[in-house]
UniProtKB/TrEMBL annotation:
<dbReference type="InterPro" id="IPR035959">
    <property type="entry name" value="RutC-like_sf"/>
</dbReference>
<dbReference type="Pfam" id="PF01042">
    <property type="entry name" value="Ribonuc_L-PSP"/>
</dbReference>
<dbReference type="InterPro" id="IPR019897">
    <property type="entry name" value="RidA_CS"/>
</dbReference>
<dbReference type="GO" id="GO:0019239">
    <property type="term" value="F:deaminase activity"/>
</dbReference>
<dbReference type="GO" id="GO:0005739">
    <property type="term" value="C:mitochondrion"/>
</dbReference>
<dbReference type="GO" id="GO:0005829">
    <property type="term" value="C:cytosol"/>
</dbReference>
<protein>
    <submittedName>
        <fullName>Uncharacterized protein</fullName>
    </submittedName>
</protein>
<dbReference type="InterPro" id="IPR006056">
    <property type="entry name" value="RidA"/>
</dbReference>
<comment type="similarity">
    <text>Belongs to the RutC family.</text>
</comment>
<dbReference type="InterPro" id="IPR006175">
    <property type="entry name" value="YjgF/YER057c/UK114"/>
</dbReference>
Length: 131
């Protein structure tokens, strides 16, 4: 059994997936692309800005689930160009302090909306009793 996470103020998600779900003491957050935190419109900028916005989306969703970035145990980073990994990594490090979560990073052929980065995560839920 799992519970869908609803994000206050976020547009209704009509796609066949949840932004996040809580299950077995964890919050599983779907991949987040860079969006403006107010309009939720996709933002096309450099990799640093796109990484920052993707992480801010993760943060907003985690907080709606009662969790936070400091409770993230695993991330997966999808990049349209692995050569942008160093710049992505500098921005990423500003948000995930030591001990940093486990992480995988991959170059992929294409990302939604032509963005440069998409990030998903798994975090600890506030309590397993929230289901």
């Amino acid at each position: 059994m799992f519970k869908e996470v609803n994000v206050p103020g976020a547009p209704v998600n009509n796609a066949p997936y949840s932004r996040a779900v809580i299950a077995n003491g964890f919050v599983f957050v779907s991949g987040q692309v860079p969006t403006d935190p107010v309009s939720f419109e996709v933002v096309h900028g450099d990799i640093t800005e796109q990484t920052r916005l993707s992480i801010l989306s993760l943060k907003k969703i985690l907080e709606a689930a009662g969790s936070s970035l400091d409770k993230v145990v695993k991330t997966t980073v999808f990049l349209s160009d692995i050569n942008e990994w160093p710049a992505m990594n500098v921005e990423y490090a500003k948000h995930f302090l030591k001990p940093a979560p486990a992480r995988s990073a991959f170059q992929v052929a294409n990302l939604p909306f032509g963005v440069k980065v998409e990030i998903e995560c798994i975090a600890l839920a506030p309590t397993a009793g929230n289901l």
